[in-house]
Amino acid sequence: MTAGACLETLIGGQSVLLDPGGVLIFAEARVMVVSDLHLEKGASFARRGVFLPPYDTAATLARLSALVAKHDPAMIVSLGDSFHDERASQKIDAQTSSAIAALARGRDIIWVTGNHDPAPHHHLPGTSVDMFALSGVTLRHIADPACTMPEISGHYHPAAILAAKGKMVRRACFASDGVRMIMPAFGVFTGGMNIREREVIHHFRRADLIAYMLGTDRVYPIAARDLAG
Amino acid sequence: MSIADQTLESRIAASVHLPEPFAGWFAMRGWQPRAHQLDLLARAQAGRSTLLVAPTGAGKTLAGFLPALTELAERGPLKPGVVRPGIHTLYISPLKALAVDIERNLSRPVDEMRLPVTIETRTGDTPQAKRQRQKLVPPDVLLTTPEQLSLLLSHKDAERFFGDLQFLVLDELHSLVTSKRGHLLALAIARLRRYRPALRAIGLSATVAEPDELRRWLVGQLPGEDRMSDFVEVTGGAKPDIAILQSEARVPWSGHFARHAMPEVMAAIKAHRTTLIFVNTRSQAELLFQELWTINEDNLPIALHHGSLDVSQRRKVETAMAANRLRAVVATSTLDLGIDWGDVDLVVHVGSPKGASRLAQRIGRANHRMDEASKAILVPANRFEVMECQAALDANYLGAQDTPPIGTGALDVLCQHILGMACAEPFKADALYQEICSAAPYRHLDRETFDRAVDFVATGGYALRAYERHARIRLNKDGLWRISHPDVAQQYRLNSGTIIEAPVLSVRLTRRGAAANARGGRVLGKIEELFLETLAPGDTFLFGGKVLRFEGIRETECLVSLSPNLEAKVPYYAGGKFPTTTYLSAQVRKMLSDPDQWKRLPDQVRDWLAMQKIKSVIPGPNEMLVETFPRGNRFYMVAYPFEGKLAHQTLCMLLTRRMERAGARPIGYVVSDYAISIWGLKDMSAMIRDGSMPLASLFDADMLGDDLEAWLDESFVFKRTFRYCALIAGLIDKRHPGKEKTGRQVTVSADLIYDVLRQHDPGHILMEATRHDARAGLLDVARLNDLLLRIAGRIVHKPLERISPLAVPVMLEIGKEPVTSAATGDDLMAQYAMSAGDLVREAMGDDWNEDGN
Asked: Which residues of B touch A165 (CB under 8 A)?
């Protein structure tokens, strides 16, 4: 998952790199942005009697650390819903907290709050904030229709479906119209929502909307008009 | 059967009497009780369980209920104010509609004889108030489905409700037993038998290949013994009058729609009172219905019936049919089983029935009197199907059967059942294990696997023991497992059953272009989400006999408007859903290899085979022909295993891996029920000739070892199978309409769970269940294994300059195959990805160019 070429694109004139692993890089500032980790989702479901495999947190963090090793950022921004529920971040086991500590070693972590984890993560390394600004771009969990600045957010778990010639492929994607970007969800138990659904698409200028679909080792920019669903 | 048994049987058969008022009722109607009806009654009176195999129209239902009704008649009425605690007789049917139908048929003799017997149905449609009342005041005879039985057994008062149960009548047993549904039912019956060890089971079945399997299924099994129920078989009945349609039009090379034959089908409808037209898939039903209406100049009342249509529409068709107001109904398998719909005098089967037993079942629909011949016409949709229909027809005259085997009990079903039993009452593991092993499909279940299933139910059964404190069931000090919270029972009831529907959305009619703010509109039925995801707004497709324009998806509804177009743009599911049975395939191979038999085939088909003989080779009945030829800038290999689509898919997956290693650079493949075609960039004729890719080792049975294992884990088939297992076992909740928004965010997709489990806990019980199901089901590994053994040393290679006549049908399938791997997905995205120039234009506006002007 860590191999593969990044694709460069612009958000409000600011250059960013999109990694096929589902993270976004501000190369000059050496900042890596990741969204919707949903750590401890398995444990959260178990409390309701649904026993998902209890390996999701470790698997998600392993994937993330591989990408951290690849890009070696000076700062990681986790764009909200880092944990699947509020109780979860306080109940993590030793293995999880040492994995997070390893990620934080020698770099800053910014935890942006999300709807699943609205309270700050005091007991974790790094800083909790409600939003964040970087190189003229606002970073927050849920896109704000009133925002006049270029903006990167998460929350919707965007996915795109390309159907043609009797074939169909559905993949998670970055969705952007050049001013606003919605990041794909990173957690191993996070599904996707078709970006053509009203809830997602109304954040964008439709004519300029591109789905940057995550391929095996490349990011494929597909015009929204070519998508299905 | 021992001699002692036989003496006993003749003794009990001779001693039976039909008591009053039954004898009088038969006499009044001018009927004689049939021998098998009396035979069954005698065996029941002697306390035996029995399998009755009889053709349609033999009075099977009455035979099945006679023992219960006579006993109930003798029991007499209750004193006023007294209520019996439970039911006397339980009837299980595979279809809700069949239970309702039986209630109607049974109430006639009961009313006419004024028997003091109450009969009620209980299905998913039964209102809550009635269900409650049924538990307090149980009827004497309860008619229900397997799902409802499992639910009843999961309640705390199950022992009271079933404590006095005398008879269990299982209708259409042959179709109940073969699936996971049958496994769950077998487990439920094991529980009934624990409550009532003397319970008498009566199985009613159409003719099957292995009656002994059903006989084992009907009685409780003990370790080291092979126990079977009694067996009564009714033979005979008039031979059906079946013909293959001799079409004037050209029979197509491939396809499943038989458009060419519609004028002749229409003529047949006109010449009969009521015609039932059977097809194998919903899409065939839709297309055929549309085709018929375009040529229905006399406006004959012709209706459509399939499982996706709205219930009210289906009921309307059924009522009109029963009242003989329709001239024809186009139907899929929803009308397949034992239901009696009016005065059908012709069955038309479009496409091959794909199995001899399936043909017999469907023809049984026309005419429910055993002594009159049913009339049927087979309409082959392509040239191979002409041979297949001929073989099915031959089999029907010979009485050959090819019903599927019952199979060993599935593990996901076991997990579901264990939770249900815990909801009913606390259990001891030893006792439950014994009870479960008494059900025939689970008689070889080992204790370790059972314990793993219990562990799965308790905490998910993971190697990493993370969920102990959230356990659903707990082992108490008294050695009993108990549910840890009443919510667990609630959760079980919402998720029980083995029928897993693909996620579906309601299809709602609205105004064109009204997607975002549409209101109201009629619901036409349900449609798979997966299909809708391939549509863009404005696309048209066929549904419910109408061409619909896709407007968009809103929450759990698919909004559509009526399209003025007559042609739908997007075809809905091509192809048939059942693979041809092994028996029928063998018959087709035999027919193909013997030019003497070609005389019975239509001219066009005979000429086609004759051309094949000149241009290539006609393989012998046990040989497999492999042809290689160049076409365009590719090289093709076409083989003819005749083992059905599923086994062919698996074969191609494995062959392409091997060809990759041999350096043949395969890039694609396609399968039909009869043949496979693989294409690549290297000259395969030359590779086979120079020995760099010997056919014998390419098709060697050892491909089912490592290659299969390696491929299994990453195949999409596996993921789909896993989803079913996870839902049945209760790992993830079923979706319930109205309880969530779109489901996409609320639930975790089974694909994601599978990926995590495969990497971190490959030995998990659900992975084992999935592997087992995938091999037996969608991959058809057993059949592939038989093929590889059959053709070892019997592969005939024919290098050709161009495509052969026999290869045309499978080559026409190319381009219709769906995405199956990451690589094809990447390929598709690459074709649509915007170039750097596009991106710049997109960012800077259309009138911008590289020079900056």
From this structure: 815, 828
